[in-house]
Amino acid sequence: VTTHALIMIFFMVMPVMMGGFGNWLVPLMMVMPDMHFPRLNNLSFWFVPNAFFLLGVSGFVEGGVGAGWTIYPPLTSIDFLSDPSMDLAIFSLHLGGASSIVASLNFASTVANMRHQKRGFHKIPMFPVSLGITALL
């Protein structure tokens, strides 16, 4: 896996497409002022720049992240890469994953709990419902 692939998947598709559009469109479509847990939303947002910074730094530490195309476990072991670059890259992906988990908790609770009293699940627009189901998966 190249750095380009890591950036595009974990720092473009997931945060921007799911988190960015979700945080923007779910409150609009469900006619509410904000997400269910705004501080949790803020926490998931601030995990992403820190994770991106760690991924960027990992490329400049000694030998860089030289784990091949698939981040194959024998190539990422301490025998092959003794410098901390691979550790920084893996920790960066863990932070990005934590951001996605926190955001999915927020989406699931928002779709389940923050609807009008007279509005059932059959009257919620499809995008918030699909985002809530994706968050539960």
UniProtKB/TrEMBL annotation:
<keyword id="KW-0812">Transmembrane</keyword>
<dbReference type="InterPro" id="IPR000883">
    <property type="entry name" value="Cyt_C_Oxase_1"/>
</dbReference>
<dbReference type="GO" id="GO:0022904">
    <property type="term" value="P:respiratory electron transport chain"/>
</dbReference>
<keyword id="KW-0249">Electron transport</keyword>
<dbReference type="GO" id="GO:0015990">
    <property type="term" value="P:electron transport coupled proton transport"/>
</dbReference>
<dbReference type="GO" id="GO:0020037">
    <property type="term" value="F:heme binding"/>
</dbReference>
<keyword id="KW-0472">Membrane</keyword>
<dbReference type="GO" id="GO:0004129">
    <property type="term" value="F:cytochrome-c oxidase activity"/>
</dbReference>
<protein>
    <recommendedName>
        <fullName>Cytochrome c oxidase subunit 1</fullName>
        <ecNumber>7.1.1.9</ecNumber>
    </recommendedName>
</protein>
<keyword id="KW-0496">Mitochondrion</keyword>
<dbReference type="InterPro" id="IPR023616">
    <property type="entry name" value="Cyt_c_oxase-like_su1_dom"/>
</dbReference>
<keyword id="KW-0813">Transport</keyword>
<dbReference type="InterPro" id="IPR036927">
    <property type="entry name" value="Cyt_c_oxase-like_su1_sf"/>
</dbReference>
<feature type="domain" description="Cytochrome oxidase subunit I profile">
    <location>
        <begin position="1"/>
        <end position="137"/>
    </location>
</feature>
<keyword id="KW-0408">Iron</keyword>
<comment type="function">
    <text>Component of the cytochrome c oxidase, the last enzyme in the mitochondrial electron transport chain which drives oxidative phosphorylation. The respiratory chain contains 3 multisubunit complexes succinate dehydrogenase (complex II, CII), ubiquinol-cytochrome c oxidoreductase (cytochrome b-c1 complex, complex III, CIII) and cytochrome c oxidase (complex IV, CIV), that cooperate to transfer electrons derived from NADH and succinate to molecular oxygen, creating an electrochemical gradient over the inner membrane that drives transmembrane transport and the ATP synthase.</text>
</comment>
<keyword id="KW-0999">Mitochondrion inner membrane</keyword>
<feature type="transmembrane region" description="Helical">
    <location>
        <begin position="6"/>
        <end position="31"/>
    </location>
</feature>
<comment type="pathway">
    <text>Energy metabolism; oxidative phosphorylation.</text>
</comment>
<dbReference type="Pfam" id="PF00115">
    <property type="entry name" value="COX1"/>
</dbReference>
<keyword id="KW-1133">Transmembrane helix</keyword>
<comment type="similarity">
    <text>Belongs to the heme-copper respiratory oxidase family.</text>
</comment>
<feature type="transmembrane region" description="Helical">
    <location>
        <begin position="89"/>
        <end position="109"/>
    </location>
</feature>
<dbReference type="GO" id="GO:0005743">
    <property type="term" value="C:mitochondrial inner membrane"/>
</dbReference>
<feature type="transmembrane region" description="Helical">
    <location>
        <begin position="43"/>
        <end position="69"/>
    </location>
</feature>
<keyword id="KW-0186">Copper</keyword>
<keyword id="KW-0479">Metal-binding</keyword>
<keyword id="KW-0679">Respiratory chain</keyword>
<dbReference type="GO" id="GO:0006119">
    <property type="term" value="P:oxidative phosphorylation"/>
</dbReference>
<keyword id="KW-0349">Heme</keyword>
<dbReference type="GO" id="GO:0046872">
    <property type="term" value="F:metal ion binding"/>
</dbReference>
